[in-house]
Amino acid sequence: MAEIVLKNIRKTFGPSVVAVDDLNLTIQSGSFVSLLGPSGCGKTTTLRMIAGLDTPDGGELYLDGKLLFSESEGCMVPTEKRGMGLVFQSYALWPHMTVAQNVSFGLEMRGMPKEARRKRVQEVLELLHIDTLQNRYPSELSGGQQQRVALARMLAINPDVLLLDEPLSNLDAKLRLEMRTELKRLHQTLKNTILYVTHDQLEAMTLSTHVAVMHNGRILQYAPPLTIYRFPADLTVAAFVGSPPMNFFSRSENEGSDVFRSFLPLFPGLAERVHTVGVRPEDLYLSPTPPLDPWSYPAIFETVLPTGSDWIVSLRVHKRTIFLVLREEPRIKPGEQVWISTRTEKLHLFDTQQKRIESP
Amino acid sequence: MKGQGMRIRRLVTELRLLPYDPTKVIGFLLCAALAYLILAPVLALLLDTVRVNLRDSATIGIPTGTFTTYFLQRTFLSRVSEVLFWKPFWQTLFVAGAVCGIAIPMGALFAWLVVRTDLPGSKLVSRLMVVPYMIPSWTFAVAWISVFKNRRLGGLAGMLETMGFVPPDWLAYGALPIIVCESLHVFPFAFLLFGNALRSMDSQLEESARVLGASSFTISRRIVLPLLKPALLSSFLLTFSRVLGSFGTPYILGSGVKYYLLPTALYNSYKVGSPGVAAVIACVTVLMGVSLVALDMFFVREYRRFITLGGKGAILRKSPLGGLTLPALFFTLIALGITVLIPLGTLVLTTFMHRPGLFTVENFTLDYWIGATIPAMVGQKGFFLNPDILRSLKNSVWVAGSASLLCGFLGMLVGYVVVRLPKSRVAAYLRQVSFLPYLVPSIGFAAASLSFFAVPRGPIPSLYGSMFLLVLVMSLKYLPFASRSGITAMMQMGNEPEEAARVCGAGWLRRMGRIVLPLQKHALLTGVLLPLISGMKEQSLVIMLATPGTELMTTQILRFIDYGYTQLANATVVGIVGIIFILTLSMERLTGANLATGFASRG
Amino acid sequence: MKGIGKKAHLFVWALLILTIPLIAGGKQEVPKPETRKGEIPAGAGGQESFDLNALIQAAQKEGEVVAYFTSSRIKDVGTAFEKKYGIKVKGTKMGDPEQAERVIREVDSKNVLVDVIGFEDGALLEGKLIPEGYVVNWVPPDIAPSLSPEDRNPLVFLWQPRIFGYNFESYKEPPIKNIWQLTEPAWKGKILIRDPAQTPANLAFFANIATNPKLLEEAYRSYYGKPSGISEKDIGWEFLKRLFQNELIVMRSDEDVGDAVGAAGQKEAPIGFYTLTKQRDNKAKNLKLATMKGMVPFMGYALPTYALMVKNCPHPNAAKLLIHYILSEGHVPWTARDMGAFSPNPKAPPHPDNEGTWTDWQKRLLRIDNKVALKLRQEVLDLWLEYGHKK
Ligand SMILES: Nc1ncnc2c1ncn2[C@@H]1O[C@H](COP(=O)(O)OP(=O)(O)OP(=O)(O)O)[C@@H](O)[C@H]1O
Ligand SMILES: [Mg+2]
Known about the structure:
A: alpha+beta; six-stranded mixed β-sheet; five-stranded antiparallel β-sheet; 20 strands; C: alpha/beta; D-Maltodextrin-Binding Protein, domain 2; 2 domains; 41% helix; disordered N terminus; binds magnesium ion
């Protein structure tokens, strides 16, 4: 239906701020792609360029093979003609219009007759379970309701491409989960292409068919969520995805280098190339006595943070703190010595360029 | 070559996109318009100081258009420069200083009473305190002259003289009454500024000092006063620029004894037929205005560090007045009476008397309101029948009305462009130029516009004596306020509502009509009503521009005073004050804005 | 950030430079004289044939006439004129500087609104407005022969004495017998006058005093009984200086002067310099004004009001008809209804209270030479500013 292709897209603000740098991305028709990255990495800018609200400095942009923007051809299709839907982080509902008026605005702009408009508005509002709110003004709605109206407003025009800019970030945890489910359901029924911006990795992992991890205006990895989690393509992705974050032991690091050296015997052929070793907290095991695993290391138990379902344990290894996730409550007191261990296949190896080294 | 091709292509792309987002074009048009309407007149004024003007050429015998230092010499160095410039200059400084000396302590005292003590009815008092600022500044002068006028000015005797006491000249005219009247008008400024400062000052600051063992005196000297310094400096500079910009009061009270301040000196030079000298004086006032604002900005920046002090837990503890409650209340009531009731009451009273001050039954009359003829004023009719007044009323409404609409609209456009093109040169330029009229005192600004637009320029015919000139100059003079509020309002709205409409496929005009304007309705209403109110009482700005036929109510008052038609002048003042009260109240109703604070906020 | 600020400045300067041609573009052309379509040609000298009826017809076709006059009585004249000819007169009272400014602006901008001016500043008229073609002197040919030649160019339609007067309730006889008395301490701060700085005619008067040393010297000798000892070149200026130093009190209008001098019930009332017409108010306002009879060498000056057409005015025929009218029967509101003013047309009957005919009055008054006024006006003004404003 709608495939979006970004080629070498670049955007700078002023002489020094490079918001998006040489970005290449193909968003398959009907997929649900998340743009994931830390604050200020250029997610919103990318989205706005796709919507046509910002003009890129260079590169090309296609929708279904049709050129939307090209620096070299001097082509720029204005927002109004792109027919995409965009939901803003702040919702941007028009406060002087009722819910129904907000939703029917886009239809009106397309010259749809009044009766048809009314029907379509009803339809969309029902789809989002807010048909009882028709005559309210935005200020009379709760955050979640506003969010649905913002979504309904864009869904009303039935866009092939729906762009969502952190739509859930203003909601509380419970509502967020509810809306996530809703979004996923919508995507399954409507089947349009969705580009979803978020800095919440959980959202990205749970919702998307593909995740694009952005950093400093570039895409570091573009893959299905599980691939990203299991095989982070580089150190930054590995560090960004997962909570608590992956533990790293680096060659250059003073405190960690003893630990780092202890890993080396595990992958004899790669010893020269590996610069950093990472291991996820849930892949580390804890035992009160030295275990028999190929790799283990002594540590001092510091504190435990129970989350309810898990226990996050912080340990002191040499002079630094590392994290572990346990499924059961640890029976150890702070200050006691323990041993941590893991399996070789659970290790993530990165070279000096911070790129992933595929284990043999 | 390649770079050039790229640039052209980019330009073509931009042009193609214009219908969807013409912000840049609007921005450029605005820049050009403001350059022509604001920058050019000010430059022309500068030019007028060194180039022989049409009217001067006849008297000084140098052909029009010649460059000369004649005017500079005449103003600053000749045997008449004492009278033309230096005396008015020093007198302006003196009056301004004296007004500061009265108005600031007065304002500060009342602010303290209202904010920091348990004075009963302090809410009401603080609302009433700003009334003197709401009514036009020259109201006090008109009231004063009706009471204290003596034979010297001719025409109808003042009230006191009729009652048998002949006020000496120093009481009737000149420095003393000017200082008193200006002080009465501007002290609400200091009141508001000090009120805000005191309100945001945490009592805990004083209490901590007390806990540390400081005496009350030490506390005031070391803690309170330093924290009030910004308010003090701001009041000082504001008062100064007020005096520099006010025409009516020194005209009414000073002309009779040849006591001129810079605005009246400028006006005189212009009236006498030497626009060259007038231009030089105007430039001096502009320079003074610019330096005052620059100083103010400097101080504001310097003292910004203090502002964060009123933290979250700020507590405002009110000192009990105790046994002083009654005296303080009494004192406050008297002050309110002097500043508001007595002047207005006097004005109203005189309009019902043939000879103000003669309290006999047959001396009372309604002639000055509804009389078809007035025995003592040949050819004049009462307020409601007087063709001059009615015409000036119509003109005032028309001029202030159109100017405020134009101003509100321009202000919104400036706000739109500045917010939509942030960090662009266009935005920076628009911000600066639309602020420029704020630096230029009214009468100087009028002089600049007059000399610039009096001559046909390109497609624009000579605007001399036309109502449009009044509208134009007034809307430009108020533009700083309108554009500031336009920028703030647009900032608050943000880009997203409009972008959401873009995404929905709405073109620029639709976005404007359906989204931006409706959302800015409130701001626009304020942006129109504020200039409307100021416009209705504007005098300094229009005195140079109004001509017979384009007389406004405020200038008509001066004509009446010139002709000695005291009661008609006073009736017109009462009329304007009435209109302003109604407008102010309806504005507060409509927008919920508190005018007092709205006016006091600057730039 | 810094870079942006710099660019903004460059941008502002660029715009400034762009505006310079616009500012400089305000050219002031002197209009070329031309006769326009539909204007009845009738020369100033009265040589050509003159057909009043044709003028009336042409004027009526134009339907209205716009006039700026220094006197508010233009309104009364307008009413009578409209009654007689059915032509509406839009008359506005306006001072000399303002009239001059308007006429110049209107003619320069080729957007002339006014047809006739009633103007008192003869110096500006002869020094600028006429020579540079802003206004046209038109004398009705049928009336011209009865006017004295010096009243024809430019055309005077009204003469008024502006004189020193006093309060006869306060003083048994005229307190000033000789002009030098005005410079004496006894009258310090007691002489009222309309602000010379804003009254060109008063400046012209002072200028003409400066150029009449003989009269002043004679007056000096007759008053003090000895020669002044001041050179002929200086005596006029010396007199003016002493006069100005005597704290003249400045008022906004002759009416104010008259009111203040003439108010009843004053002891030691001030004296004043005002147009004789103000004495008409003696009845209406219960004033006690009287003229300074027998004052040496003159009681004041003859103040002319000129009537001229504006170049390229929109209603030239109606303008001529109005000028014709105020020189014949239309002078009534000025000269016949109240005292104090005279028509240059000897056929016009003077008011009985006038204390004589215009011929009698001319002997009591200084006649203004506009050329002198033009030349010395600025100097007199400066003298006035220098000494008249010192306390
Ligand atoms: N209009 C602008 N002018 C200047 N710089 C901008 C502008 N918009 C964005 N930037 C800069 O571009 C970079 C990318 O911004 P962007 O808004 O795309 O980040 P983001 O990934 O959406 O961040 P967040 O998660 O905080 O929303 C940031 O460094 C930002 O400061
Ligand atoms: Mg963002």
